[in-house]
Amino acid sequence: MTRALGIEPKVDVEIDEQKVHQQDVYVLCSDGLSDMVDDEDIHLTISTFSANLNLIGQQLIRLTNDNGGRDNVSIVVARVLKPFAQRKKLLKKLSSIFG
Questions:
Q1: For residue 3, what pLDDT is reported?
Q2: Given this model, what pLDDT does residue 98 score?
Q3: Cα separation of 37 and 68, whole Å?
Q4: Which residues touch 76 (CB under 8 Å, ≥6 apart)?
Q5: Which end of the chain is more exposed for a tag (fewer CB within 10 A), N or C?
């Protein structure tokens, strides 16, 4: 899922809840990555280097640059270390803030 922020006075926020599992890896990135690297290549990079989050980020930046790197790229990679309880009212709170 993608969403641009910062260019319009009003931003449409899309919130989606997903089950989170131990050892899941999440990548938050700018369009500098997603415009330059196919989703399949991003997934393959995460799968290949899943033991080392720093290496995932480095490889994704390398792929971006190898594909032309026309824009700046920001990447945050995180892993779920342990399960946690779902906060059922969180989505409702977020919706009221951004709604």
A1: 57
A2: 63
A3: 10
A4: 27, 28, 29, 57
A5: N
